[in-house]
Give the backbone structure.
Amino acid sequence: MNDKNFDDFLRLQLQGSSPYLDDGDFSARVLASLPAQKRLNPWLEKLIVLLPVTLIAVLVLRQFSVRELIQPAYAWVLTLDMHSLVMLAVVMAALLFIAPVLLILKQKSLF
Amino acid sequence: MSLSDQELIARVVSRKDQHAFAQLVLRYQSPLRIWARRLCNGDTHLADDLAQEAFMKAYAALGAFRAEAKFSTWLYRIAFNIAANRWRAKKIEWCELDENEEIEAEQCSVTQYHAQKDVEAAMQTLSAGQQLAIRLCFEDGFSHEEAATIMGIPLGTVKTHIARGKQKLQTLLASWQDALPE
């Protein structure tokens, strides 16, 4: 057996006898032991979403004149009778109260 | 399409992307755990702990990794260093890599039917340093230089380990000579 043939033989046998180890939960354990990734400040996260949305909204609103937007709404309010105005006020107050309560309940349910 | 090691490493370093690191772990978990088993004399639990620690250290030090070497060479070297520290602390048994003493092989002719079994049996008669050097170069496909880097010993010592180991294997596996092409 010459040296080259023996090298090939040895390589073939050793590589052939080397099994592939199934991962099992090994990778999961490694990843779980890594230091936790730093999270952004929650306010910063909200700012990242709100800032572009606000900018886009401002750009869209700039396409209309303020008078065109406000005048119809003001005219609509003026045409309402007292009963409808009170109802509108009650609904808006209820919404202002319910929205934060729902938000708090939703956050609690996450824990 | 799977990303190259370099691309994954760049993602981990720049964005601390743990998903990219998970890809590297999945890619190298099997060879590293096998390497760790060799370093831990076959103790699978100890070997998995060692491999896990090696990946954690690699993650922490990935920013310092230079692409001059292969990622696998660097990873194997980390595992070897951890094992060496444990040997020094006597947590696992080990033999000196530079030892000249070899296990005296019984002068039996290795004539079992399966070549792999014969090769494995013959490998067991080599010294620890010879076994590791031969496995790194013939089983894992590292060059002599890479094996020297991983084992932290001079290139000449690796070459000596391989030459002596091969010489012994050739003697023990002489019965396979006829089965091979000239």
Q: What stands out?
A: Confidence is low (pLDDT under 50) at residues 99-113 of chain B. The radius of gyration of chain B is 18 Å. Residues 86 and 92 of chain B are 6 Å apart (CA to CA).
